[in-house]
TrEMBL record:
GO terms for molecular function: nucleic acid binding. This is IS630 family transposase. Pfam families: DDE_3, HTH_29. It comes from the Bacteria. Signal peptide: none annotated. Gene3D superfamilies: Ribonuclease H-like superfamily/Ribonuclease H (3.30.420.10). InterPro entries: Homeodomain-like_sf, RNaseH-like_sf, RNaseH_sf, Tc1-like_DDE_dom, Transpos_IS630-like. Residues 184-317 form the Tc1-like transposase DDE domain.
Length: 373
């Protein structure tokens, strides 16, 4: 008498997986039906009963059971063959991907990017390795291999020889002396013009701002100071950047800690910040200036707080003059300092922090800190 066809003894994980598919369903009807076959066979049902249960041929049920006994749960995903033979070998596909990701001007073409039509034509006429492929097949091949049409991005490599030393000094101030660490930077230019933004409105009826073409009000710069330990932000609007305005901001920071103990101020390498008179004043008043590396202004912690400032005071605004704009900015600063841990403020800070660091993927930490002088 022929031996009955049935699945081998299921392991605990296999039984749980099959039960999960049968109970919860699956996005693939093939996986669902095969899981039913295997679970029914494990329960002692013969092949004819299983075939009637899943409305399948008995030979199909036997094939699934035999396949499970050979390779396990991998049999749930069919490996169907058939159809027209593949025209491209894996090496041909690699060649297509390599060509698509190579700039056309490198290959002697008079343009800087491929279109699907140009790429297919180039592959067909390639002397080294001609590949005949249609535009739709080429598009599907690139999508399958993870090649998409993307915008080119630019980036800067800092030439600062003291890059790591400056970052270490800033990290030391932020991690070891946060209650005596401040940040300073200019935010702007701030012009008088309607600024696009976002707000709640009826569907297809966005809020509109009038366009302006004569902008005679000039510009201002917000000179911002940020206390890391207190999480407080303050500043003044000025018509221009300059040594005298930087000096005034540093004096306001020094006044925030009137005990005379050393404080750390993080700022960028603008010439108005590194003037010899400011340096001499800083040494005399125990203000340790921590300059960010060249092209690395993202290392200044105040940058993350300029994002909410832009989002909540400038975006979606139409200030008539600088006086009104400055009042709105300082009204937000008063609210922000009273609600420094507000979820909207924290979320905007996270988005701005991610934006200013995403280009290089840089994050704090990961390096041993050196003791700062």
């Amino acid at each position: 008498m022929a031996q009955l066809v049935r699945v081998r003894r299921l392991t605990e994980q296999e039984g749980q997986k099959l039960q999960h598919i049968v109970r919860r369903g699956s996005t693939s009807s093939v996986r669902f039906r095969r899981a039913m076959m295997l679970l029914a066979s494990a329960g002692g049902s013969p092949v004819p009963v299983i075939a009637r249960l899943v409305q399948a041929d008995e030979d199909t049920v036997r094939d699934v059971i035999h396949r499970f006994n050979e390779i396990g749960l991998a049999c749930l995903d069919p490996r169907w063959a058939g159809g027209r033979p593949r025209l491209l070998t894996p090496d041909d596909e690699d060649f297509v991907v390599q060509t698509a990701t190579t700039r056309p001007n490198v290959l002697g073409k008079p343009f800087t990017r491929w279109s699907i039509r140009k790429l297919a034509e180039h592959l067909r006429r390639s002397i080294a390795r001609p590949v005949r492929i249609g535009r739709e097949a080429l598009r599907c091949l690139l999508a399958r291999r993870g090649i998409t049409f993307q915008r080119t991005k630019t980036w800067k490599e800092s030439p600062d020889p003291a890059f790591d030393a400056k970052l270490d000094r800033i990290e030391y101030a932020l991690n070891e002396r946060p209650d005596r660490t401040f940040a300073f930077d200019e935010f702007g230019p701030l012009g008088i013009r309607p600024t696009a933004g976002s707000c709640w409105a009826e569907r297809s009826r966005p809020d509109r701002l009038p366009a302006t073409y004569r902008r005679t009000h000039g510009i201002t710069y917000f000179h911002g100071c940020y206390s890391v330990g207190d999480d407080q932000l303050w500043g003044v609007n000025r018509r221009r950047k300059g040594i005298d305005h930087t000096w005034a901001a540093l004096r306001s920071i020094r006044a925030a800690r009137p005990d005379g103990a050393p404080i750390y101020v993080i700022l960028d390498n603008l010439s108005a910040h590194a003037n010899w008179r400011i340096r001499r004043w800083a040494v005399k008043n125990k203000v340790k200036l921590c300059f960010t590396p060249t092209y690395a202004s993202w290392a200044n912690p105040i940058e993350a707080h300029f994002g909410p400032l832009r989002q909540f005071t400038l975006a979606n605004s139409n200030h008539p003059n600088h006086t009104v704009q400055t009042r709105a900015l300082h009204a937000y600063l008063r609210w922000r300092n009273q609600n420094a841990r507000h979820p909207d403020v924290l979320a905007a800070q996270r988005r701005e922090r991610a934006r200013i660091r995403s280009e290089k993927g840089l994050r704090w930490g990961g390096k041993p800190l050196r003791t700062a002088a």
